[in-house]
Structures are given as structure tokens and as C-alpha cells.
Design goal:
single chain; 317 residues; alpha+beta; Killer Toxin P4, Chain A; 3 domains; five-stranded antiparallel sheet; transmembrane helix; disulfide bond
């Protein structure tokens, strides 16, 4: 009888070990369960970058001038929401190929100086990783842009499509929303200012061109961008069209200064890191459940074998 109890105790301990192992496997590790901190300021959200294939050599005169240009652009955000600079500069300085750098920044009209400075600083901080050593960079944030090149682009019209995105379809049944969107997009085309904001109910639209363009060039660029926005995104829940020298966009709800473009353009920030973390957690849970099921199957088979053996031993005694 004591032998039977001893074997039963060993069996219980085996069951306990199996369940303990299953619980350990079910608990996510710190690398997948920890939410990594992310930069959440929506005014500083990265939209796109265009980098030249041609690259300068580290330590070159161009790199020295570029560093001076970028720091000067950040410093000038205190007093301006737009500025363009040429480095080296001066009345007696002549441009040199692969040495002179031309650059500008511009912030949305509804950004205060602190937010503008933050956005431009964030854009410049991204340049090194996004476009390392590129001679030409165009980096667009949600509410500011930074651009530089080894050739002057000031005052040059350029309507190249850089990015176009439309949100999810609204549906034909929402006629009121369609009317508001149509009104906002249409009103963006009127006016002579380089920065335009139009609102109708919960629909908000913005259009802007870089201030190096003349009024006629600006209107020409915005007409193109707004026309593309109307033809491609009128039936969507939001959209934007970025050309090289201007953009037009609209969204539902909230201020553009606090919005992040996503599939619905509703103002919620899409965070890829959060999605990656959630996917990781889900995978860990699924793997844990599968492992637990396998362990239970093995455990049941093991218990069946043990019980049969115990019964055989008891009968033999």
C-alpha cells in the first residue's frame, strides 16, 4: 500500500510540473510585453522623405556647410515660420558645385513658434538616418517641411507628385458629409494667400505652397493639388496630395495641427511600434495555448499509462 501511495505522489508531482511549465510558457517575456515609448507629438509626425542617390563624402566642405545651414534653419524658427538660406552666403561669395547648399523650412500657419521649432528640429534629426549623406533631401512632416539641395530650387515651379493618399470610402448614403467635403475642397481653391484653411462642420481642409513661389506660381500649384484631391479623394473619409512645392488635404474632426494621417484621417495617431507589440503579445499567447494543449495531450497519455500500470501492480499484489 505504501508503494502505491508513493507512486501516486510521484504522479501528482509530475502533473504539477507539467502545469507549472505550461504557465511559464504562457507568460509573455519582457521583450514582447513591454510597451516601448514612442514619440507621440502629432505635429512632428513623419510623412515622407525624398533623398537623392548622389551622396557627399563625410568631412567634405558640403557637409560642413550643410550642418551650418540646418542649425541656422532651426534658429530662425523663433522669428519665422518660413525661411530660406544659402551657405556660404555673402555679397562676394560665388556658388561652387558640390560645396554650396541651398535650404529652407516651412511650418503650417496654425503652428506657434515653439511647435514650429519642435517640428523642424524633429525633421532635421530624422535627416541623418533617413537620407544619410544625400546631396538633396526633401523631408515632409505633418505640419512642417525641411528641404535642401546642392542646386538652387528657390522660385522654381515644380508640381511633381510626391505622395497621394485617400482614406476609406464614405459611402453614397452620407450625402451631408459629401456636401461638406465638396464645399471645403472647392473653397480651398479660392483666395490668394499661400496658406489656406477651410472648415465646414467637422470637415477641415488645408492647402499650402512654399513661400519661395510667386503668387501666380502658388495658385498654379495649388490648383493642381486641389484638383487631384477632388478627383481622387472626394468620396473618401479624408485624403492628401503632396506635390513638390505645395499640398492640399482634408480630414474629419479636430485640428490638422493635432492630427496624424491614417486610413480614416480621424485624428488618432497610428503607431507601428504599438501594432508590433500587440502582434508580439498575440503570438506569445497563441503559442502558449498551443503548447498547453500539446502538454495536456501528452499529460493525459502519460496519466493513462501510469494509472494502467498502477492498476496492474495492485491487481498483481
Amino acid at each position: 500500500m505504501s508503494l502505491f501511495r508513493s507512486k501516486m505522489f510521484k504522479t501528482k508531482m509530475t502533473i504539477f510540473c507539467f502545469f507549472l511549465t505550461a504557465l511559464i510558457l504562457m507568460v509573455p517575456t519582457s521583450s514582447t510585453a513591454t510597451d516601448n515609448p514612442t514619440y507621440s507629438a502629432s505635429t512632428d509626425t513623419f510623412i515622407y522623405a525624398n533623398c537623392s542617390q548622389a551622396r557627399f563624402s563625410p568631412g567634405s566642405a558640403y557637409e560642413t556647410n550643410l550642418k551650418f545651414l540646418l542649425s541656422s534653419l532651426v534658429n530662425s524658427t523663433v522669428l519665422n515660420r518660413y525661411n530660406n538660406l544659402t551657405v556660404p552666403f555673402g555679397s562676394g561669395v560665388k556658388p561652387e558645385p558640390d560645396v554650396t547648399v541651398y535650404g529652407l523650412f516651412q511650418c503650417s500657419v496654425d503652428l506657434d513658434p515653439i511647435s514650429c521649432s519642435s517640428c523642424v528640429s524633429r525633421a532635421i534629426a530624422l535627416v541623418g538616418n533617413t537620407c544619410p549623406n544625400s546631396y538633396s533631401v526633401f523631408l515632409q512632416m505633418q505640419n512642417c517641411l525641411v528641404r535642401y539641395d546642392k542646386s538652387s530650387f528657390f522660385g522654381v515651379q515644380d508640381k511633381t507628385v510626391m505622395l497621394k493618399t485617400c482614406g476609406q470610402p464614405m459611402g453614397f448614403y452620407d450625402q451631408d458629409a459629401l456636401t461638406r467635403v465638396n464645399d471645403v475642397i472647392g473653397s480651398l481653391g479660392s483666395g490668394s494667400e499661400p496658406d489656406r484653411t477651410r472648415v465646414n462642420g467637422d470637415v477641415r481642409g488645408m492647402a499650402q505652397c512654399t513661400e519661395d513661389l510667386s503668387p501666380a506660381q502658388c495658385q498654379d500649384c495649388l490648383t493642381d493639388a486641389i484638383g487631384r484631391l477632388r478627383s481622387d479623394c472626394l468620396m473618401a473619409q479624408g485624403g492628401y496630395v503632396y506635390l513638390s512645392k505645395c499640398y492640399a488635404r482634408f480630414s474629419f474632426g479636430g485640428s490638422h495641427a493635432r492630427q496624424t494621417p491614417n486610413s480614416n484621417f480621424g485624428g488618432e495617431k497610428y503607431d507601428k511600434d504599438d501594432d508590433d507589440n500587440n502582434i508580439g503579445k498575440t503570438l506569445v499567447i497563441i503559442i502558449g495555448i498551443i503548447t498547453l494543449v500539446i502538454l495536456l495531450v501528452v499529460l493525459l497519455a502519460f496519466l493513462g499509462k501510469k494509472l494502467r500500470k498502477l492498476q496492474d501492480d495492485k491487481c498483481c499484489r
